[in-house]
């Protein structure tokens, strides 16, 4: 039996392994090339880890507007339904590989909800 997510360290593992998948996917890489080129990737991982830590453990560390960040990205590289499908697939696969339990389930549910809201706000949601 796999453990449940129980700490920020667990979240950082998920985020790191998840981004390992994104960075080798030619459809997803363009969204992260600037972060990598500017040597901001580790900083980005910490920010995303803070975001999920706030969601799962009710901390107050993340200080950005996640929706605005994606709206900004969309002005340079069009986010499409397929990008969200890839994102959710990699995210779920990564969580499922390492963890199971209430927090793992909560993380996947929130990821699905966030993806749906973003697609709606970007006007790319397909039922």
TrEMBL record:
SUPFAM superfamilies: Globin-like. InterPro entries: Globin-like_sf (IPR009050), Globin/Proto (IPR012292). GO terms for molecular function: heme binding; oxygen binding. Coiled coil: none annotated. This is Globin.
């Amino acid at each position: 039996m796999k453990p449940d997510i129980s700490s920020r360290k667990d979240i950082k593992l998920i985020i790191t392994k998840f981004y390992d998948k994104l960075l080798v996917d030619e459809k997803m890489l363009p969204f992260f090339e600037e972060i990598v080129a500017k040597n901001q990737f580790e900083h980005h991982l910490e920010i995303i880890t803070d975001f999920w830590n706030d969601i799962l453990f009710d901390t107050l560390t993340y200080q950005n507007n996640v929706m605005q960040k994606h709206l900004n990205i969309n002005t340079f590289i069009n986010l499409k339904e397929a990008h969200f499908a890839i994102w959710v697939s990699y995210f779920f696969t990564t969580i499922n590989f390492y963890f199971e339990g209430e927090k793992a389930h909560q993380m996947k549910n929130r990821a699905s909800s966030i993806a749906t809201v973003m697609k709606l706000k970007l006007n790319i949601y397909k039922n």
